[in-house]
Amino acid sequence: MRPHCFVAAVVLFALAPAVADAQGPDQSAVSGVIIDSSRAVIVDAKVTLTGSNLIGGPRRVSTGPDGRFRFSALAPGSYDVTAKFQGFRSASKRGVRLEAGATIVVDLVLDVAGISNAVEVGGSAPLVDVRSAAIPTHLDQDALQALPTSRWLPSIINLAPGVAGDVAFGGTQASNGMYVDGVDITEPHFQDVVGRINYNWIQEVQVLGLGASAQNGEFTGVSARSVLRSGSNRFSGLAEYWTTRPNWLAHNTGALEASLATSFESKKLLESWDTSAQLGGPILRDRLWFFAGFQRATEDSRPAGYKWTGSRREHDPRMIAKITAAVAPSVRFEGFISRSNYLVTGDGIDPWTPIESAWDTRQPQTTWNAGLTWSPRPQTLIELRGGGIDSVSHQDPHAPATMAGPAPRYDVVTGLYSGGVWWTYDWGGTRQTAALTLTQEVARALGGSHSFRFGVEIEHTTSTDAMRTPTGKAYLDYGGEPYMAYLGGDFFTTGRTTRTTAYLQDEWRLGSRLTLSPGVRISVNRGGPPSSPGFFSTTPVSMRLGAAWDVGAGHRTVVRAHGGRYFDATFSSRIGADSSQFDPTVVAMVTGPGQFEEVDRWVGDGNSDGVDPNIKHSYVDQFVVGVERQFGTNFSLQAQVIRRNFDVFMGMIDTGSTWAPTTLQDPGPDGIVGTPDDGKLLTVYRKTNPGNEVFLYTNPSGAYRRYSAVQVIGRKRLAHGWQLQASYTWSRAVGTVTNHWHSNAARYDLGNPGTYVNPNNGINSYGHAPFDFTHEVKVLGSYRVPWWGGVMVSAVYRAHTGYAWGRVVRAPLNLGTYLGIKTEPIGARRTAAINNLDMRLEKTIGFAHNRTLGVFVDAFNLGNQGVPNAEGIKPVVEMSGPKFGQPTKWIDPRSLRVGVRFSF
Fold this sequence. Notes:
Elements: H1 3-15, E1 28-36, E2 46-50, E3 59-62, E4 68-74, E5 77-84, E6 90-98, E7 103-105, E8 108-110, E9 118-121, E10 137-139, H2 141-146, E11 163-164, E12 167-168, E13 177-180, E14 183-184, E15 202-208, E16 223-228, E17 236-243, H3 258-261, E18 268-284, E19 288-302, E20 312-328, E21 331-347, E22 359-377, E23 380-397, E24 409-411, E25 417-418, E26 424-445, E27 448-468, E28 473-478, E29 481-488, E30 491-510, E31 514-528, E32 536-538, E33 541-551, E34 557-567, E35 585-592, E36 595-602, E37 619-631, E38 635-648, E39 651-654, E40 659-665, E41 681-687, E42 695-698, E43 705-719, E44 722-735, E45 767-768, E46 775-785, E47 791-800, E48 804-805, E49 808-809, E50 821-822, E51 829-830, E52 834-846, E53 852-860, E54 895-903
Parallel strand pairs: 1-7, 1-8, 6-9, 13-16, 24-28
Antiparallel strand pairs: 1-4, 2-3, 2-5, 5-6, 10-15, 11-12, 13-14, 15-16, 17-18, 17-54, 18-19, 19-20, 20-21, 21-22, 22-23, 23-26, 24-25, 26-27, 27-30, 28-29, 29-35, 30-31, 31-32, 31-33, 33-34, 34-37, 35-36, 37-38, 38-43, 39-42, 40-41, 43-44, 44-45, 44-46, 46-47, 47-52, 48-51, 49-50, 52-53, 53-54
């Protein structure tokens, strides 16, 4: 953490008024009203909250003038609520299940004291949050441990309705927030998730996007907020081992035509295992708890279609330590530090890239967080938090290749890479944040009661990006012979960004039924290279308004509506460049061995070419209306309509080039002019003044995307041995900007070259987004079968429409685009739909003193479906030619994974 960040936060803390309260986005609350049998509110009733997750022992508050009480800043878990008042029988509610970020309403009725002095309110706590306009998906510890998943934390978002392939509600792939105990574990270049946190260390995950309040920002997809496990007043631990043997993988390429099936085989596994251990417990009972864990995993494999020697081998050791402390009855502290040392050899191999053209990746990483909460009185809570991540990735040539050679090559006829790696990277950076959040419960003001929440965040990032090409030359071959070369082109950039954000959010309760949630979020973003830190400047303002109407008694039905603006993070990939750090790229024809004839050159697209001083930060306007109803004790049904408008993007344009129209014959799918499948003449564009490019980072005119959806979601919480979440989503995402990975960070359509830099890339630019999964069905559930003492059966079923794509033809060199010319709009073709079922069988044996031994068998892709992977970028060859339509990415075949877990 930089010193000035903490100093600013401490000053704000000191100057803040005493009427402050804080509740971080990951924390939850229990609230309600205490009344007597005549429905009159009881003032100054004593309410007690107990639970195993409460460090410092039970919490106690008194009801206010409106009979209301609230317990804030609670970790997810199970709690008991008890209310007492002199002359009345006490009442209590047991086993109130609290999810991350949720507020559960528990109203209690006190009767006049009689023979019995206490009464326990029957039934479970409400399943529906009737106070919130937000519509999150909660995955608690029971679901995380029961379901068959990849056990890779960032992929958890894909269990939420409307999210698949890391694409959320029509947003850009992977443009999602990812937090662990409040720490943003994404890197600053593109918002890729780099934090490596063990799945077992997580207690609960809240996937939040629709209706998110003003305290949530810097994402246009969803924000996944994970809560780490903590210790408790008893020692508990876990040790487990998972493995998949090579012969436990099936083959799923049988549907391919015979000539292709022989060369395009399923994924091959050589080795796979994962082991971990963890322990938590008290250092001082009710005062100081600890949690610590270690994990080591290895996988050695060859991707589908890979036909050479060598493999991709991944090593992933991680460790964590966390402390939770009750410093005083009203002051609590928690903090953690995590370390990993990720290593991959043979990274980047695929059906077109042999291992000699791959690289090795090293990614050491440290993540940390510390937070202090103080409750000077029952209606007030103050939270001060700081955290960060340091992650730099080094990608080097795979031995025996070195930077001295061999030079990399790509054959435009065969689509194969050869020689050394095309380029090497050193990239990554740091993200450090200090935050102060203050909230105050106000019983009566402006016609209702309020929970005002005010927060200030200061974030600083640094990023480094160094790219080099071995030997300084990269060749394009044509049928095995070099015909063009890229000479030079190395660059080194260092970027810095600073974000200062203030937000105000109110939970405004009007009467006993209606809750409004007005909010505003203002950020000041600055960034650039060290020599020009104010090179990039935006000040986005997010206005948000939600409403939740609690329909009828019992808090069982809620009607929600919410609208608001959500801005992207600041991506440092385009604002950290300094032209002096770029080696010009020379494009040359190869005229002989070591002989070249220059045809074009350009300097990098960094700050020498400028950022529009009036650039607007990219955002999405989001609107959602829906209703949720609880049926019985444990079921709920939800329906909602969603609209998201991506009207402003940040991207590159070229203000210096001029273009003249010309024609190009569409060679048809075979890529050969003069054959029967030739298409029509295409109007394309030739640059008339090569070498005069002037790139500007701005808001390209006409860049937009629209998303519409209808969702129906049914949930059954864990009770009587089973739980279930089932959903159907119909959606449509269309526009002129794809939702490919990194596209909103000025890559692909918005990059260089892109739709708004080269008009050839704008041909047929309107269409479906590639990850436009029109129909999506998702079912998650588990059931304890009463056989052999109880066997848990769980499953995850996912089905959705395939990847949207269209045919592309290769463009002549003088058209200046390596992306090709789109002869069809995106969405003219679709890959096969995904239809996948994963299942788990679990047998657990209990011993004395809460010891258990569990044996697990997971079966992935149980039906052994074999289709291109619609959740990966360009899963088929889109370019006309001999490989047109052939798969480049393939879903994994049916596989088994076996695990053993001992816990106490």
